[in-house]
Specification:
- By secondary structure, the protein is of the alpha/beta class.
- The chain is 41% helix and 17% strand.
- It has an eight-stranded mixed beta sheet with strand order 5-4-3-6-2-1-7-8.
- Helix 17 links the parallel strand 16 and strand 17.
- Helix 9 runs antiparallel to helix 20, helix 11 runs antiparallel to helix 20 and helix 17 runs parallel beside helix 18.
- It is elongated.
Length: 661
């Protein structure tokens, strides 16, 4: 069996995907070399990245036999632990160095080894070019790096790697790179004697930018021991604990899972998803996200973030579980499946209490949050007269706050205000909810508490009635505003046919299901109107047919001041034609409900003509109504509504201000 250098294309030159992943491989190498400090210099202006460490460095033999030997495995060569600090090494496959060429075309390496006995440092330096490597791939089975000057590299021990000539422009900021690297390692700080810097600024756990946004935190396994440390630096609404033992195995997991307040707190950064649970082995990222393996559909899943340490996935005596890219784990491996079987019930446990935790928190902060949406919400809340109603109002606000309002969505603020406004209206209509909580306490029909429930039922009915009244008052107010006769005429034409209660409070809106009959009658009336004289057509405004309260109604609107004299005889003749046309239409359906004919006039008849008109119209179940009397009677009939409107308007004013501002 022979091996072509072309395998490098598949193992590293084109395998790695981004700068943080590549730099992680270099940092891992420094960690394995017992470095206590690694400094990454991000020089965007000069398109250069420099990685410096104070590890052991490499001799010429180390360079040729280990670094340049693709596939050299430290663990298989008795180097499972680092030389001095006895760290469990992160590297395994021996292909991490190839990752350099997935982002940069030119790599320079300078390294220094300190002889412990003589105190003398030996330095070496060489460069590698991706294009030269690819050229050699086509013609031979070996590639020889170019030896270069050490230059101003003055370290007594350690290694420096300089990356230039990048495949694509560097757009990462120092802050973003620190965050990505902080999230890829859990062995940073004094506890592990390992410090990582970007541009001379140390990377700390805080750079992960996790915990400042976490509301509820679940600590897992050995991480529970660090609870006080978490509380020293961060404020969580609640901390819970989860056992880290995998049932039926000797495996253990540690780490944490948290939920944030809003999904937008986890919004992607530079196409990097933050809504994930990462898996680390030996202190280094092994898999970006295990959450995607479960296809969780619950809303809670959009709020999840976490980090699990599972060292059993990287045991020396077991096969390497990582894929070639070192960015994912082989999901068919039994160890990974054991981890999945552990995580799934843990997630379900979190899901089971997450809603309760959020509701409790939202209820606790309900009024404060509502006030931030609009100050009028607090004013409405304070206007509630009983503690019980205030408690229900708090629950209402809490429910609204539990809904998903992504601040990045268009009109998110308006949608929230609208929902609050609708919630207040619903609350006012459903005050009965206060009594429903008492139903479970009622044991007999004689229980005096029934009186309170029925009283609340009456209150609810009254509230609904006032809502209807509010609509009707608005119509009446329109009449009040219009003083000009022609305006009254136009307004009646606009409102009368859809608001028959103006004529009679017992008549509500048109009966549903009567549309087909109305079209038939309208066609018949059009035929009749076509036969009127020019004078008669000018004197009228409209004719309509409606059904209401088990009755068929014909409405003829005359102009307030018609251009010709309306006589009792011609009024009767016109209305009788409409009545006969309606009878003709009803005959085809077998409907025998009574018919009423109403003429709405502007100027009244004199006494003699009025008597004649009334006598004639009685024979066809007809009557006359005048515009002015109609308005006056409506106002009188709904005077109680006008009084109640004063109370309704207070609530309406609050709602309008919430929605409108």
């Amino acid at each position: 069996m022979t091996m072509s250098l072309n395998v490098l294309n598949h193992l590293g030159l084109r395998l790695y995907s981004n700068i943080p992943t590549v730099l992680s491989e270099l940092v891992a190498n420094s960690y394995d070399a017992d470095a206590t400090k690694v400094d990454i210099t991000l020089d965007i202006d000069n398109e250069k990245i420099i990685i410096d460490d104070n590890g052991h460095g490499m001799t010429i033999e180390d360079i040729n036999d280990k670094f340049l030997r693709v596939g050299y495995s430290k663990r298989e060569n008795g180097e499972a632990r680092s030389r001095d600090l006895k760290r469990h090494v992160m590297g395994r496959k021996g292909i991490g160095k190839l990752s350099l060429f997935s982002i940069a075309n030119q790599v320079e390496i300078r390294t220094s080894v300190l002889d412990q006995k003589s105190g003398v440092s030996t330095k070496s330096a060489f460069s590698m070019n991706r294009f030269d490597i690819e050229k050699e791939i086509k013609s031979s089975d070996k590639y020889h790096p170019i030896e270069i000057e050490v230059g101003d590299f003055d370290k007594t021990k350690g290694t420096q790697i300089i990356l230039t000539n990048f495949k694509r422009q560097i757009t990462y900021t120092e802050k973003w790179l620190k965050k990505r690297l902080a999230r890829r390692f859990s062995v940073l700080g004094d506890e592990y004697k390992f410090d990582l810097y970007v541009n001379n600024t140390p990377i700390t756990i805080a750079d992960r930018d996790f915990f400042s946004k976490v509301q509820f935190l679940w600590l897992i396994g050995d991480e529970i021991k660090k609870k006080d440390e978490y509380l020293k630096h961060y404020s969580f609404e609640k901390i819970e604990e989860i056992n880290g033992d995998l049932p039926g195995t000797a495996y253990k997991v540690s780490g944490w899972i948290g939920t944030v307040e809003l999904p937008s707190d986890l919004k992607p950064e530079k196409n990097v998803n933050n809504n994930k649970i990462s898996v680390l082995c030996r202190g280094k990222m092994a898999q970006e996200d295990i959450l995607e393996s479960f296809n969780e559909g619950g809303i809670y899943a959009d709020y999840l973030i976490g980090e699990l340490q599972a060292d059993f996935l990287d045991l020396d005596e077991e096969d390497d579980i990582a894929t070639s890219s070192r960015q994912k784990i082989n999901e068919d491996d039994p160890r990974y499946q054991e981890l999945q079987r552990y995580i799934y019930p843990a997630l379900k446990k979190i899901q089971g209490v997450w809603t309760t935790f959020r509701n409790e928190l939202n209820k606790k902060n309900a009024i404060k949050k509502a006030k931030l949406v609009h100050p009028k919400l607090e004013i409405w809340y304070d206007s509630l007269k009983t503690d019980t109603r205030k408690e229900h109002a708090r629950e209402l606000f809490s429910t609204i706050e539990s809904f998903h309002f992504d601040s990045s969505e268009p009109d998110a603020v308006k949608k929230k205000k609208d929902l609050y406004a609708q919630g207040i209206v619903a609350f006012e209509k459903l005050r009965l909810r206060e009594s429903l909580s008492e139903l479970s306490k009622i044991k007999t029909a004689d229980d005096l508490k029934l009186t309170r429930i029925f009283a609340d039922l009456n209150d609810l009915e009254a509230n609904l009635y006032y809502d209807i009244a509010a609509e009707r008052v608005e119509v009446i107010k329109e009449f009040q505003k219009k003083l000009d006769d022609n305006d009254k005429e136009t307004l009646l034409q606009k409102y009368l046919f859809d608001n028959l209660w103006i004529l009679n409070p017992s008549w509500e809106r048109p009966t549903s299901g009567s549309e087909i009959m109305e079209k038939r009658v309208e066609a018949e009336f059009n035929t009749i109107v076509a036969g009127l004289t020019e004078e008669e057509r000018k004197g009228r405004m409209d004719i309509k047919y409606r059904t209401a309260a088990g009755k068929h109604i014909i409405l003829e609107l005359k102009r307030y001041d018609p251009s010709y004299k309306v006589t009792p005889v011609n009024l009767y003749a016109q209305l009788n034609k409409y009545r006969k046309g309606l009878i003709k239409c009803l005959a085809s359906t077998g409907n025998s409900d009574p018919i009423e004919v109403i003429a709405v006039l502007g100027k009244p008849f004199n006494n003699e003509d009025l008597k004649e008109a009334e006598d004639l119209l009685k024979t066809i179940d007809g009557r006359i109504i005048y515009y002015d009397i109609l308005i006056e009677q409506s106002l009188k009939s709904y005077s109680d509504y006008l009084e109640k409107q004063k109370e309704i308007s207070k609530l309406r004013k609050i709602i309008d201000e919430i929605v409108g501002s």
